[in-house]
Amino acid sequence: MSVDVDLKKAGRALGAADDLDPDVMPSRERRARLWVEVARGHLQRGNRTAALHVMKIAHEIGAETVAFTPSARTVASDLWRTAPRALRGEASRLAAAVGVATG
Q: Which pTM value belongs to this model?
């Protein structure tokens, strides 16, 4: 899935994510990283609302993983800069929680 996102094949990546059950993954880090990749896919497709939703899931699962994963920090930063007006507060809180400078 990560490779598909890296290759800008968001549709294929999100399709692969539909077939995965994160709850059976024994590693919290891997579950959090999976959700980060799903968020990246949604962001590539322009769906910032879905990206924010799944980034919040990733952060709940593994706050430290999200804070120290460069791609997760990039997503949080992108969401903070581009979130729809109604979601800017949530995006700002997420960015701050991840450690992305927002001011």
A: 0.87
